[in-house]
Amino acid sequence: MQKGMHTETERCVRAVQSKDARFDGWFFTAVLTTGIYCRPSCPVVPPKPANMVFHPSAAACQQAGFRACKRCRPDTSPGSPEWNQRADAVARAMRLIADGVVDREGVPGLAARLGYSTRQVERQLLAELGAGPLALARAQRAQTARLLIETTDLPMAQIAFAAGFSSIRTFNDTVREVYALAPGDLRTRAPKNPARTTPGVLSLRLPFRTPLNPDNLFGHLAATAVPGVEEWRDGAYRRTLRLPYGHGIVALTPHPDHIACRLTLGDPRDLTVAITRCRRLLDLDADPVAVDEQLRADPVLAPLVDKAPGRRVPRTVDAAEFAVRAVLGQQVSTAAARTHAARLVTAHGTPVDDPEGGLTHLFPSPGALAALDPETLAMPRTRRTTFTTLVRELADGDLHLGADSDWPETRARLLALPGFGPWTADVIAMRALGDPDAFLPTDLGIRRAARELGLPSTPAALTARAAAWRPWRAYAVQYLWATDSHPINFLPV
User: Fold this and answer.
1) Is the backbone peptide bond immediately before 471 cis, with ω within 30 degrees of 0?
2) How much is the pTM?
């Protein structure tokens, strides 16, 4: 599977005829005779190949006049893995659109973040996705509206504006056009949801491509959880979220075919962003078949992959937060890093109310941390300098970490900061920026695993050996870490 797969007609036809769910999100099938579009794994009888047309995005299907299938609900497919494995302008634009930037800042704001003109951005997206930024954002608004309609009892007028529509009329017209149903009919057809009885709580199912191994994913998040901000409770990872319009609390529970997501939002306008960040946190848009196939080609990694396929990279909901925590974790144990972070949360975090108890704060913003007295930090002076330089750069906007970051450029900026070596820069690239090829050859756990497996254990030699794992070295890190008995590798009991 690769860039522009929708242009490979024969391959797409085979995927549709075999109802292969691995291709969901890679392309969409528009059926000329019915005027609907589907995901490749749609359960209905496949149409004749002559009646199929393939598009790279749901927005392109909608722009061509097709409506979403009511059976397979193509708008709920996992996102395309391309946007998380590429660092070019189109991929960065797609990550920003998913994070709601077009709704909040418009196309000019999107272009400014990317460093291009609006015309250049529109031309690039149209060439590759078959739709411009406004159409892509519109498709996302339609999906958000559907979620709110089906999972809440909010009045339709509130849903319209929460989903990002400028008027109720536009909301009604878009929902009818995309789903061939009026908003009220969508709500009537939706299954009863117990969460509707709890104001502000949304219960959703986050899809992913199988296989997914939850052990290291949730094990890592639980083992490194900062008290007050994160916790593991009743089989779910819970944490607070700092969002554009307010704050939220999310509980994420792994299931064999989906991740159960329970969201409590202060403002429903944050729904799209919250879902996007939760998906990024759990790396749910990855293509595990492609990743594992590449790594399995190495005879040393093959047994590790075969034993527990589908490992994901545990990422973050807030890149700046993770960068701060990475500095706190330099040359100390996981427990010590949690203790340092918990002190900062108590002293400088924003208090929140958790109806279930356990969570008390949002992680401190860079601005709040930039104002603290460095002498209060219980760490060596050199690390204090590293910490204060980082938070000042983040607070002033001189260093930007986010979905639109250019990976090589940002890594170089990080390495230029005092106290930032390859490990810190690479772990931020891997978990905060989402670079799937970030590698940690100096990590003690990686070097120990390398020695046990008979791989080179010096950083330079291991990096040379790992060239065969590209572009998925961040996933190789997960398999190498999993050879250890550290709690990060095990789903909490």
Assistant:
1) yes
2) 0.89
